[in-house]
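[step 3/7] inverse_fold.run input=structure_tokens len=335
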């Protein structure tokens, strides 16, 4: 019995001596960190290089056996590392990485309760407020005044993938500002190109270059010339028929009511002057139609320019039906 007890005590002493005799390495040296991104929006990446730690331990303790190595690996696997902050980092800021569940690992190596690292190497950024955002793009307005549509052109190719949305697109007006806003989350795109968004991503640009039409035909300074031109076009078109002129109608901007989407200029056009006429052929009978000029754009002097005017027409059963239809879609009679 004494012999067995002596043997057991010797074994325990050997184990204790072996444990106490480990030459410990500092595990904190094997926690590597790096930083990426831009200043104020940086991110930390960290890695506990366990293989290097094990190798270093075995080099310092060449007599360690396979069982010791296995226990060391198991102890390392228990360790948890938590950084005090992982994102929105700034240069020179300090991040604390805390070690937890280290009790078993402390038998083999020296391990700190925490490790402090300073943030470095983040790219300097340019803050994009509304004024700076406006410099990155240009606004191209097309169509008619008060019904203008917008196209945002990006001038900086580095942010060409960013989408923008324009408030009240389709109702833009010359001389007023269009509110433009980034459409979606493009923070990473901006950061990768040295930008950081300040604010909600909105800004304004002036609207200009939209075509204008007279609200009322009477507002056009050269209205008599335009009426004369329209009659000439009608007479030229139906030289082999007898033409009876009825009422004349005008509409400035299309209201959208009754639009078909098939490009019917009389229904969908802007700046339209039309006349109701009956065309009677000697042998082919007679037809009633509304015929006129569309796209009667006014210039800065208030005169209608005819260079881009287009001839439009549409057949009806009679004058009354034609008048009713035109008035229903926003035309008013020219007296």
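[step 3/7] decode complete -> sequence:
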């Amino acid at each position: 019995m004494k012999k067995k007890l002596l043997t057991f005590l010797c074994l325990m002493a050997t184990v204790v001596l072996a444990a106490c005799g480990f030459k410990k390495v500092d595990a904190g040296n094997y926690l590597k960190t790096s930083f990426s991104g831009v200043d104020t929006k940086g991110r930390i990446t960290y890695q506990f290089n366990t293989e290097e730690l094990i190798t270093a331990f075995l080099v310092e303790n060449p007599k360690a056996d396979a069982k010791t190595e296995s226990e060391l690996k198991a102890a390392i696997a228990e360790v948890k590392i938590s950084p005090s902050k992982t994102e929105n980092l700034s240069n020179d800021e300090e991040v604390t990485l805390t070690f937890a569940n280290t009790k078993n690992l402390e038998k083999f190596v020296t391990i700190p309760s925490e490790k402090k690292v300073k943030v470095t190497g983040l790219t300097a950024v340019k803050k994009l407020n509304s004024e700076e955002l406006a410099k990155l793009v240009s606004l191209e307005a097309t169509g008619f005044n008060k019904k203008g549509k917008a196209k945002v052109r990006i001038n900086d190719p580095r942010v060409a993938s960013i989408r923008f949305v324009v408030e009240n697109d389709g109702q833009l007006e010359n001389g007023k500002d269009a509110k433009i806003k980034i459409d979606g989350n493009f923070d990473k795109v901006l950061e990768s190109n040295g930008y950081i968004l300040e604010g909600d991503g909105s800004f304004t640009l002036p609207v200009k270059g939209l075509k204008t039409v007279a609200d009322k035909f009477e507002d056009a300074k050269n209205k008599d010339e335009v009426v004369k031109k329209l009659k000439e076009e009608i007479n030229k078109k139906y030289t082999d028929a007898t033409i009876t002129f009825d009422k004349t109608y005008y509409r400035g901007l299309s209201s959208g009511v009754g639009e078909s989407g098939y490009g019917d200029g009389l229904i969908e056009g802007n700046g339209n002057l039309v006349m109701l006429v009956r065309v009677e052929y000697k042998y082919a009978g007679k037809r009633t139609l509304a015929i006129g000029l569309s796209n009667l754009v006014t210039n800065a002097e208030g005169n209608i320019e005819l260079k881009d005017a287009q001839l439009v027409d549409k057949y009806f059963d009679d004058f009354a039906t034609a008048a009713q239809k035109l008035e229903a879609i926003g035309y008013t009679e020219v007296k």
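[step 4/7] annotate
The first strand starts at residue 31 and ends at 36.
The chain has three domains: 23-117, 124-209, 215-331.
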